[in-house]
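Troubleshooting log. The previous structure file for this entry was overwritten by mistake, so regenerating from the original sequence record. Sequence copied from the archived sheet and checked twice against the printout by T.R.
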Amino acid sequence: ALFASGILNLISGIQMVTGSQYGDLASDVYDYFPGLQSVDIICGLLSIALGVLLIYTRFRLAQYRANGPMLLLICYASSGLLNLVYMIAVYTILEGDLDVSSSLMSVGISLIMVSANNVYFKNRRPLFIH
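Regenerated output below.
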């Protein structure tokens, strides 16, 4: 799941940087909402970085490396924070004309995953000693 999530973050990040998530309407969207292109580029680059971190974390966990569990918590927290920052930025640019329910749900899921995995890996700390 981490590997797949990493790949999806890479793809999503590339789409955001290039504006291809808007298809042929990218130039129209960016003309109408000028600040959106900067937000998309910055968040796209962060999404690419998160994708790389997710893939790296997958290998650290698979090898039972000591930093694997902490990297996973960082991944989940970073994902939630990135979603929150993007939602706030787009909400501001669109002047409140945005349904934020899916973004808020994503942030909530990230918080739950951080909490649940923190407990899970604390109980399995002796396994991650390499």
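The radius of gyration is 17 Å. Archived copy saved in two places this time.
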